[in-house]
């Protein structure tokens, strides 16, 4: 069944490249609605309640993936398309670049919430470009590399389970008054789920940087020197390696709705400019392509019985 998994991953990636995210009835949005309804029942201001919420929500998705995964490569392809977000990420990045290059700051500010949770009203053109660039670097790993990795490891349960973990982190993995304790489990599980994929994304960035005139040496140096200073053990790898590859400097004051955070400096180049955004999108697309090639080639090794078709392929 490893061949079935490989075929499904490749086909699902191709469908995402052709069509992007499903425009209606997106299963991830459906999961988000279900998780919100579950939260109304499970919420308590305690870590234990958050653990229960995570186990029920993610466990249900893993069980579903176990059942539907018996459908072979067509189901793997559909699940892959469902969980990938790389094409929509690149398209949004290009639209942001178009708006900034034409001087339409209002349009660029309107696009930013589709990429990240920062407050766009306080950002100029270069600030918007930096925010978009950092988000593209991080989400290249989260939206493409990680789901493909887990699809290769565990077939359909891996694909759906990863997306459930990542979605819950985006919903409740915050250090604010409501979610500091309840969202703790969601944030920690997401960190663990992305530990290997983020480093795969970093490695692909190093290897592929020269294809767009970037620096493999700079990407590796920034990763090794700066990634550990980032508050996220995984986003730091993706952002630092991208900064080094593009010869720019990321980080600094970062304004969110809850306030301003001072992010560590990643990379040793100049401050990012609008023109760097298109290069970041191209780098993202190269990393995405590299990730699917690695996943397809590695499916037979990482998931020898693939796709959830056999009991041993299910790895919760």
TrEMBL record:
Q: What keywords would UniProt list here?
A: Cell membrane, Cobalamin biosynthesis, Membrane, Transmembrane, Transmembrane helix
- Transmembrane portions of the chain: 200-223, 280-302
Q: What is its main location?
A: membrane
Q: How does it sit in the membrane?
A: Multi-pass membrane protein
Return the Pfam families for the record. Answer: CobD_Cbib
Q: In which pathway does it act?
A: Cofactor biosynthesis; adenosylcobalamin biosynthesis
Q: Which domain of life is it from?
A: Bacteria
- Indicate where this protein resides in the cell: Cell membrane
Q: Which family does it belong to?
A: Belongs to the CobD/CbiB family.
Task: Sum up the protein's function in the record's words.
Answer: Converts cobyric acid to cobinamide by the addition of aminopropanol on the F carboxylic group.
Q: Return the protein name.
A: Cobalamin biosynthesis protein CobD
**Taxonomic path:** Bacteria, Bacillati, Actinomycetota, Actinomycetes, Mycobacteriales
Name of the gene this protein is made from:
cobD
């Amino acid at each position: 069944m490893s061949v079935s998994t490989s075929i499904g991953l490749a086909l699902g990636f191709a469908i995402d490249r052709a069509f992007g995210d499903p425009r209606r009835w997106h299963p991830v949005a459906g999961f988000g609605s279900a998780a919100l309804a579950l939260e109304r029942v499970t919420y308590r201001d305690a870590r234990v309640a958050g653990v229960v919420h995570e186990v029920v929500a993610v466990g249900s998705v893993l069980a579903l993936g176990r059942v539907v995964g018996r459908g072979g490569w067509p189901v793997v392809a559909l699940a892959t398309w469902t969980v990938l977000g790389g094409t929509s990420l690149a398209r949004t990045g290009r639209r942001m670049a178009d708006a900034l290059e034409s001087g339409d700051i209002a349009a660029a500010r309107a696009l930013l919430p589709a990429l990240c949770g920062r407050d766009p009203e306080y950002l100029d053109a270069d600030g918007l470009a930096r925010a978009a660039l950092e988000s593209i670097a991080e989400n290249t790993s989260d939206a493409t590399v990680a789901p493909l990795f887990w699809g290769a490891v565990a077939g359909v349960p891996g694909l759906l389970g990863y997306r459930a973990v990542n979605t819950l982190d985006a919903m409740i993995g915050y250090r604010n008054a409501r979610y500091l304790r309840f969202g703790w489990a969601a944030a920690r599980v997401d960190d663990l789920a992305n530990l290997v994929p983020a480093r795969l994304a970093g490695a692909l960035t190093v290897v592929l940087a020269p294809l767009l005139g970037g620096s493999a040496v700079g990407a590796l140096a920034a990763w090794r020197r700066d990634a550990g200073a980032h508050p996220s053990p995984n986003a730091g790898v993706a952002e630092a390696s991208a900064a080094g590859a593009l010869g720019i400097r990321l980080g600094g004051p970062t304004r969110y709705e809850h306030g301003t955070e001072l992010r560590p400096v990643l990379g040793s180049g100049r401050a990012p400019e609008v023109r760097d955004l298109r290069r970041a999108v191209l780098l993202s697309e190269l990393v995405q392509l590299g990730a699917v090639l690695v996943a397809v080639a590695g499916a037979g090794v990482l998931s020898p019985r693939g796709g959830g078709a056999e009991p041993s392929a299910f790895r919760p």
